UniProtKB/TrEMBL annotation:
It is an enzyme of class 2 (transferase). Its EC number is 2.7.1.175. This is Maltokinase. It comes from Streptomyces ferrugineus. GO terms for biological process: glycogen biosynthetic process.
Length: 481
């Protein structure tokens, strides 16, 4: 990855230096900040593009900045570049009350001295400018806005920022489109654009087709920065729906079955349009090595995992043993971070899958590798478990029923029931639960007991076919919503 500092149409030298103390304090508080737990010690500019000049009623800057944070060096491992974030910074003399939540701070010196800077995505005017750039296929400095010419984008749609918890930031335009602005960006082909485009080409209507997108071309590398797609009106996500049914004491089996069918449709379309490969002994051993390594890293980071490590490891070893005996698996492009929150149901009852970015913490190359479809299935199975643990009422057997219905829906469309491969399923479910433990420890410590109860079950049962719910979770504490 290039560390080159590329200045585009910046007309404010010293801009980043003057924002530095404010950003150090503001950035780590953002939900989408990936480097939680380590202080930010400084920034370097990757690109700065002036979208509206300073000094007027509103100034607007598009910044790509690396946030430097101390890291413990790993002997022999290559040094990782600091994470690069996309920021849209506005400056005004003072913020109107409606923009108070967007405040970054008051600039003490430099080109914006005396001005108030803020996260401009909260402000309709900058959001309108972004949509107009997408609509017209604009080029501004290194920023290139592109669109699918066959789809119409109406101008003057009213924007509103989505305020729910997200790994990125999204703006809805008039309930017609949604623009996802990626926050932590890396150069290369981004699966959040690549896969929906491939699925649209394949005619798969389980995924909203990208209408427009934009990227930055810097030092020969392209960074995907945002994707505009049709907004599924009146949709509820699978997580909300599942919790709603749980609160009413209702089961969710019919929806879980429909979700299984939708997942299989997407998998089959991806397998038709993008390469599939066969994983033999060597590849599966590499896969297993990755799982074991993630377990070790996770156990370093979250001490509560340590007593379970031998049991968890045996789930991975069982997979390696099957591979050594000559068993092979097919791998293909998959969603990569599938859970109930990534599924939207429109009022007509159709399920859509969104957010093909993969697990945000993994390197892009890894996220784009063909993998067994069971990995997505395991993500959904974990999600039913999460929902059951988050319910206000006890729901014995709820997750079991959903998990079984989801697998049978999947089998109905694909002809293959994921439960017929229990060793692979358990290995992926274990890998996912370990990921979740780290994710929750970092982002939502109150939720840690949810994946920990799965860890308890998976470690105890390693090597035997997967049961569906933990028999004795280590903590009954329910997460705060
Ligand atoms: N096409 C869409 N139609 C309606 N809502 C959407 C659409 N895409 C995303 N959303 C909403 O935006 C939220 C965040 O989108 P997502 O792609 O998951 O972003 P992130 O990677 O930031 O989590 C989703 O949970 C969903 O509520
Ligand atoms: O925000 P993303 O969609 O990129 O995904 C991350 O955050 C998710 C939580 O918002 C996290 O999902 C975990 O919690 C969900 C309930 O909130 C649950 O349905 C999922 O099964 C569970 O993994 C996801 O892991 C993380 O990558």
């Amino acid at each position: 990855m290039s560390e080159a500092v590329t200045r585009t149409v910046t007309t404010s030298p010293g801009l980043l230096a003057s924002l530095d103390p404010l950003l150090r304090e503001w950035l780590p508080r953002q939900r989408w900040f990936a480097g939680k737990g380590r202080p930010v010690t400084g920034f370097s500019q990757v690109a700065a593009t002036e979208l509206l000049p300073p000094g007027g009623k509103l100034g607007l800057y598009h910044l790509l900045v690396r946030a430097h944070q101390p890291v413990t060096p790993v002997p022999g491992a290559p040094e990782q570049p600091a994470d690069c974030y996309q920021l849209l910074i506005g400056d005004r003399e003072a913020l109107p009350p409606r923009l108070a939540p967007a405040l970054i701070g008051h600039v003490a010196d430099g080109p914006l001295a005396g001005r108030t800077v803020y996260d401009a995505l909260y402000d309709p005017r900058p959001d309108e400018l972004l949509l107009e750039a997408l609509r017209t296929g604009a080029r501004v400095g290194a920023l290139r806005f592109e669109r699918d010419g066959s789809r119409r984008i109406r101008s003057a749609l009213v924007p509103r920022l989505v305020t729910s918890e997200q790994s990125n930031s999204s703006v809805v335009y008039g309930d017609t489109f949604i623009l996802k602005l990626l926050r932590r960006v890396v150069p290369g082909v981004n699966p959040d654009l690549e896969l929906p485009l491939a699925l649209a080409r394949e005619g798969c209507d389980r995924v909203p087709a990208p209408t427009a997108w934009f990227h930055a071309d810097l030092a020969g590398e392209s960074y995907v920065l945002g994707v505009l797609q049709p907004f599924v009106q009146g949709a509820a996500d699978g997580w909300e729906l599942a919790l709603r049914e749980l609160a009413k004491g209702e089961d969710f089996a019919a929806e879980a079955r429909a979700l299984g069918r939708a997942t299989a449709e997407v998998h089959m379309a991806l397998a038709r349009t993008l390469p599939t490969v066969t994983l033999g002994h060597t590849q599966v051993q590499q896969l297993v090595d990755g799982m074991v390594e993630r377990l070790e890293t996770a156990a370093q980071a979250v001490p509560a995992l340590r007593p379970y490590a031998p049991g968890l490891r045996s789930a991975f070893e069982a997979l390696a043993t099957l591979a050594a005996e000559g068993r092979t698996w097919t791998a293909q492009r998959i969603h990569g971070d599938l859970h109930l929150g990534q599924c939207l149901r429109s009022p007509g009852g159709q399920w859509w899958l969104i957010d093909f970015e993969g697990e945000p913490s993994k390197p892009l190359a890894e996220r784009r590798m063909p993998q067994p479809v069971v990995r997505d299935v395991a993500g959904m199975l974990r999600s039913f478990d999460y929902a059951a643990h988050s319910a206000d009422l006890p729901a014995p057997g709820w997750a079991d029923t959903c998990r079984a219905a989801y697998c049978s829906g999947y089998a109905q469309v694909s002809g293959v029931d994921p439960r017929t491969d229990p060793v692979l399923l358990r290995a992926y479910e274990t890998d996912k639960a370990i990921y979740e433990v780290v994710y929750e420890a970092r982002h939502r410590p109150d939720w840690l007991p949810v994946p920990m109860s799965a860890i308890h079950r998976l470690a105890a049962d390693a090597g035997t076919p997967a049961p569906s719910t933990p028999s004795s979770p280590p903590s009954p504490r329910r997460p705060r919503p």
